[in-house]
Amino acid sequence: MAEPHHEAEGIGVSLSSGSMTGLGRETVGSLLAAAREAMGSSLEEIAHETRVPLRHLLALENDRHDALPALPYAIGFVKAFARTVKLDPETMATRFKSETQLTPHVPTAMKDEPMDERRMPSRQLVLASVAVIVALVVAIGLYGAGAFDPEIPVVAQAPATEAPQMVDPAAATIDSAPLAGPGAALPAPAVSPATAMAMPPLAGEVVLTAREDVWVKIYDRDTRAVARMGIMTPGERFVVPAGQDTLLLRTGKAGALTITVGGRALPALGGPVETIDRVGLNAASLAARFTPAQPAPAQAPTTPVQTPTGA
Fold it and tell me: Which residues are CB-contacts of 55 (< 8 A; sequence separation ≥ 6)?
């Protein structure tokens, strides 16, 4: 009795060649091996043509599925092998799936387990970290507002003296009386005295207004008690209480403050980042700060004595 044959794309494959499954039919490995031998090709030639590693081709023919990679790669090797030996690749792939115990890779689900409390930072460490961050933020804000600027002593400026006026000798008034005699001096020319510009008297409520973030310290000159210390935000005002004429001001950004006395705005206390201290916050002290000293009266220039010439 003749043996039955398996036809695959025009090539007869004998069922007697290759291994048999428990159901009495040939495996994919035996079919691939029989088809390759019928073509007269070696495994090396199949490996060169399909680019499938030789060890994987050997594993396929010997049905050693445990030596094959994951199922998607193994199915690709089966199709490439079958296509090269003129077998239907889809049929071989379907049969291989029914024979193999390889399974597609399924990502392992993460276990929803509570975190080990021993791996979490302690409550004390968290609080300490928060405290350090807050301290850094406050320090940066104070530094930007000028709280750590070095104190620059206020140096009293020397009173400006007005330069003597030049007098035109021709414009001087000279007495028409004749000279009294040898050695008589000519009358001195008339010179108008210099006048100093003085600020009008200041009186009324003293108000500090911040134009930008600025750190200030307002304290009592005698008791050193602090009336206000911290950062004033733009637009914030500090009204000097009535009767407290001993309050002093320290700040690292003198130009960031506007001071008014009785509603009258005064010039800036200093530059944008200039540090000032012990600035009196009362009308008299502020008026003295911005009022120039009275210049000394200019002396009239002396005229050399003319000695008449004669025999």
Answer: 67
CA dihedral for 233, 237, 241, 246, sign (positive or negative) = positive
Which one, of 151, 159, 197, 154, lies nearest residue 285 by Cα?
Answer: 154
Strand partners, 220: 247
Neighbours of 218 (CB within 10 A): 19
Q: Answer yes or no: pTM beyond 0.70.
A: no
Terminal Cα-to-Cα distance of the chain (whole angstroms): 180
Instruction: Give tens-digit pLDDT for 251-305.
Output: 989 999 999 998 999 999 888 889 999 999 998 888 888 776 555 566 656 666 5
Question: CA-to-CA distance for 262 and 277, rounded, in angstroms?
Answer: 23
Pairing of strands 214-220, 206-210: unpaired
CB atoms within 10 A of CB 50: 19
